[in-house]
Amino acid sequence: MPPTDSTAVAGQPAIRFENVVKKFGDHTVLDDLNFDVQRGERVTLIGPSGSGKTTILRLVMTLEHLTGGYMFVDGEPLTHMEVNGRRVERRSKDVARTTQKIGMVFQQFNLFPNMSVLENITEAPVHVLGRSQDQARARGLELLDQVGLADKADEHPTRLSGGQQQRVAIARALAMDPEILLLDEVTSALDPELVGEVLGVLRDVAKSTDITMLIVTHEMQFAQDVSHRVLMFDGGSIVEEASPDVMFTAPENERTRAFLQAVL
């Protein structure tokens, strides 16, 4: 039975998908999906395009509307809850409070071109978290140093390379101090020579923090390096899950073997 109040439940996973269904019209993208991501765990979703991986991230970020089932963050219902045996939507302000725990880095950088790099990073902490300009600026400069862009604080995004813009986007997500970080094919829009610099930053984040990560990527070496667990998706369902060592060396499922043979 799903929790019926908005109080986080101790000992619960960071993210839980319970009988999740997502449809676009008559097309079912996710059908009765069930899996957990534990606190501090880094889980990577792999599989062919169109298998529902990005839809999962967009549902957690509430960028897509859940058709059926429930999602939980720290044991707290995300968008829907059960009241007197009925599935009902949570109030938007309660959803917004829960989603403050979640950050997302997209395929496209989505930076504000009219703002400096530092302003892009400090905008949300000031206006959403209520931090002072000085606090936000200090944290922003610290994060820019962390992603190797301390000298670009006053530049505008249009003057940066794609790899630099994506590193700014990572810093912007981290500036909100999220408990959960969603990564959606963060290198897919980059020229091949720029991929390494972005993945290097994310490897450092994985090693130096305990942020829970849910990752969608076609970069299999990156998945192998940073993941605690890898889930293979096909047709909106999990066909196999394993540690990266097992998934990339001795997968059991025939569909997994065929996919990895094609991409590796």
Bin the helical content.
Answer: 25-40%
Bulk shape: globular
Q: Which radius of gyration do the C-alpha atoms yield?
A: 19 Å
The count of helical stretches stands at 9
Strand order of the largest sheet: 8-9-10-3-11-12
Query: Strand portion, in percent?
Result: 25-35%
Secondary-structure-derived class: alpha/beta
Record field, number of beta strands: 12
- What gap, in angstroms, lies between the N and C termini? 42 Å
Low-confidence sequence ranges:
1-7
What's the order of the H and E elements? EEEHEEEEHEHHHEHEHEEHH
Sheet with most strands: 6 strands, mixed
Mean pLDDT: 93
Main location: membrane
Keywords: Amino-acid transport, ATP-binding, Cell membrane, Hydrolase, Membrane, Nucleotide-binding, Transport
Pfam family, one: ABC_tran
Membrane topology: Peripheral membrane protein
Q: Short summary of the structure?
A:
This protein is of the alpha/beta class and 264 residues long.
Overview of the molecule:
Belongs to the ABC transporter superfamily. It is an enzyme of class 3 (hydrolase). Its EC number is 3.6.3.-. GO terms for molecular function: ABC-type amino acid transporter activity; ATP binding; ATP hydrolysis activity. Residues 15-260 form the ABC transporter domain. The protein is of the alpha/beta class. It has a domain at 109-177. Helix content is 35%, strand content 26%. The protein contains nine helices and twelve strands. It has helices spanning 53-60, 92-99, 117-127, 133-146, 162-174, 192-208, 220-226, 244-247, 254-263; strands at residues 15-24, 27-37, 42-46, 68-73, 76-77, 80-83, 86-89, 102-105, 180-184, 212-216, 229-234, 237-242. Strands 8-9-10-3-11-12 form a six-stranded mixed beta sheet, sandwiched between helices. The protein has a four-stranded antiparallel beta sheet with strand order 2-1-4-5, with helices on one face. A two-stranded antiparallel ribbon has the order 6-7. A hairpin with a 2-residue loop joins strand 11 (229-234) and strand 12 (237-242). Helix 3 packs across helix 4. It is globular and about 50 Å long. The model is unreliable at 1-7 (pLDDT under 50).
